[in-house]
Amino acid sequence: MKSTMSTEEYIDQLTAKGFVFREDSLGFIEFGKHYTASSDYLVNVAIEITLKAQKQFDGSFFVSILEMLKAEKIESKHAAFQLVKDKNIM
């Protein structure tokens, strides 16, 4: 089941757990979302993948993950994690 949490809410939740998003990180998230015309759900999945793979937020990595998810027409978290596993990203 897809989460209906907005990206802003998701970032707030992660911040409450101790993750730090600098101003440039938030800019990359907004840029990536608009550049790829992605839903909050897909953006949130890309943020999660980025944090798990990089152990911190890496803006260019995030945008490339989001572009890949869009190009592959990924619509679920499970499919996204399977794709990055298949590509040896994580």
The total strand number stands at 0
Main sheet overview: none
Low-confidence stretches: none
Percentage of residues in DSSP E strands = under 5%
Q: Compute the average pLDDT.
A: 93
Query: What count of helical segments does DSSP give?
Result: 5
Counting helices, strands and paired strands, the structural category is mainly alpha
Q: What is the terminal separation in angstroms?
A: 23 Å
Helix amount, in percent? 55-70%
Order of secondary-structure elements: HHHHH
**Rg, Å, rounded:** 12 Å
The rough form would be described as globular
Pfam families: DUF6123
Keywords:
90 residues, 5 helices, DUF6123
In brief, what are we looking at here?
With 90 residues, the chain is mostly helical.
Structural write-up:
- This protein is mostly helical and 90 residues long.
- It has helices at residues 7-16, 23-36, 40-54, 59-71, 77-86.
- It is built from five helices and no strands.
- The two termini are 23 Å apart.
Lay out the secondary structure.
Layout: H1 7-16, H2 23-36, H3 40-54, H4 59-71, H5 77-86
Helix pairs in contact: 2-4, 3-4, 3-5
